[in-house]
Predict the 3D structure of the following.
Amino acid sequence: MLHEILHVMEHAVIDTVKMLPFLYLAYLLIEYIERRHGSRIEKALEGGGHWGFIPGAVLGCIPQCGFSAMAANFYASRVITLGTMMAVFIATSDEAIPMLLAVPSKWPQMVVLIVVKIVAAFVAGILLDVVLRKVLPASLRGGYTGHVEEVDCHEHHEEKQSIFLSALFHTINIFIYVFLFSVAIGFVMEWVGEEVFTAFLANMGVLQPIVASLIGLVPNCAASVLLTQLYLSGSITFGAAVAGLCSGAGVGLVVLCKTNKSWKQNLFIIGLLWALGAATGMIVQLFAL
């Protein structure tokens, strides 16, 4: 038993420590973009009107949870449309991009992931704000009323710390998540058997993206860490990872449920996000991207 524990811990430490330099550089870049260009990004979302899903899809790819939270608050105040918010939610990657940046061999898949998420966000925005605009109830489609209230999930340390310390804070935080999930996955592989665990997920076939999309709905960066770690370990397909990361909106869903008073609308939006994520993942899996 002790030998197995030490074996799993050793592999988890080696795998996660190798990611640290890349992870820190990725968060350093993210902190720079967020501080220098955050206000411009907010104005682009607010002023997008019917076509707000275009900047929403592109800007949502910046890997931090603040934009999804901001989009949820904008939608609850009816400043942006449903399509714009959904575009931000689908494009949001939370910690997946920094984790994939930390593994150079996966950079091509990271580029494909970003492109797929932007395309899926565009499609969702067009469907909700253009094609189905007259079908959706006015109270659901949103836009053009209310006042902006900024939301930044990192404000508790951002103003007091330098950009280098903030990047270090995020790196250590995600390092702990990655390490814990690596240990958990390692124990599962060790006790259940890698072949058994992988076969279980593989036998789910088309259901794998559906289940992954459900995992993505967990309103925490831990979900994106888990999904990315499962993909990097070969336990789930790229399509399943895409499904979960498309439905993963970080803390955006928490902010939505807190600020948008209609629970029926919130349930519809959550269900729609799950369906869009699952559908995107299955399409990716079908074409073996």
